[in-house]
Amino acid sequence: MQDQTGGVVANLDGSHLESIALTLEHSLAVRTRHQFFGWTQGSLQSLIAHELLICVLRRDRPAPMLVDSFSTLAASTAETIEHFRHNVSLLAHGIVAWEENDYRPVARAAGISDPFASSPLGHELQRLGATHTVMHGTHDASGQWRSLFIFAVQPAAAGPQLKCCIELAVPCMHAAWMRTLFKRRTADAAAAHKAAPLLTERQQEILEWVYRGKSNADIASILKLSPFTIKNHVQRILRRLNTTNRAHAVGKALAFRALDF
Fold first, then answer.
1. Could you give all domains of the chain from N- to C-terminal order, each with its CATH number?
2. Is there a contact between 95 and 127 (Cβ–Cβ < 8 Å)?
3. Which of 66, 160, 145 is nearest to 107 (CA)?
4. pTM for the full model?
5. Cα 198–chain centre separation
6. CA 91 vs CA 126, 179, 250: distances in Å
7. Could you read off the pLDDT tens digit of each residue along the chain, which spans 261 residues?
């Protein structure tokens, strides 16, 4: 395998290459945030030993960046991680450095001129001995960055082999993280739909009979309710769906999947 990291991949022995392949294969099973945490802080640690992982995603709305972090650090670091999450200038600095490095992993040691090192999170990581960072990401066909992954590591872990492993792992990390975000949005949408259904169960029942061509009197007889009660329900259904007649209400309910057929 040809690479641009000084022949690091070619110099890895068979057991190490097998370990890399198995670890990346395990990422295919990641579907939730909990699983992503378990994978990055578990088996991935054997390849990329890190104290903290920060994941950044470019998006158009509601905010230009989505930032998440994964670590087994003590809870006392939560405030410093939150500070970094909202410090867009630090994120932008890392993205520019990665792009200027021809989209290759960027390794940095904490220094006076390093804005990351001088941040509250940088100070906390230095206290824990994680004084080095390695950044790598993904981009689209136009060269626009899509995601950035920042690893805070111990000095002993930094080196060409670590950068090589990160370069191999990041595409799988990006795909796995995207799956967790998709699942989260789907679950949120389902929860919102369940919490605020478009029609009540009784309204759905009545509209189903309307769909089957029954009159108010017919529905009243079937449900053993008064015609006046059925008429009130139908009027509420029309208002709820913002429609003017029964046929329109049925069509809109079917379009919004408020009726299951």
1. 8-193 (3.30.450.80), 201-255 (1.10.10.10)
2. no
3. 160
4. 0.65
5. 28
6. 18, 23, 50
7. 344 544 556 556 677 788 889 999 999 999 998 899 999 989 899 889 998 888 888 877 656 778 788 887 654 455 555 666 666 667 777 888 899 999 999 988 866 556 666 676 677 777 778 888 899 999 999 889 999 999 988 888 878 889 999 999 999 999 999 999 886 655 555 555 554 567 888 998 999 899 888 999 999 999 999 999 999 999 999 988 888 898 888 878 876 667 765
Q: Which residue has the tokens 């990641």?
A: 30
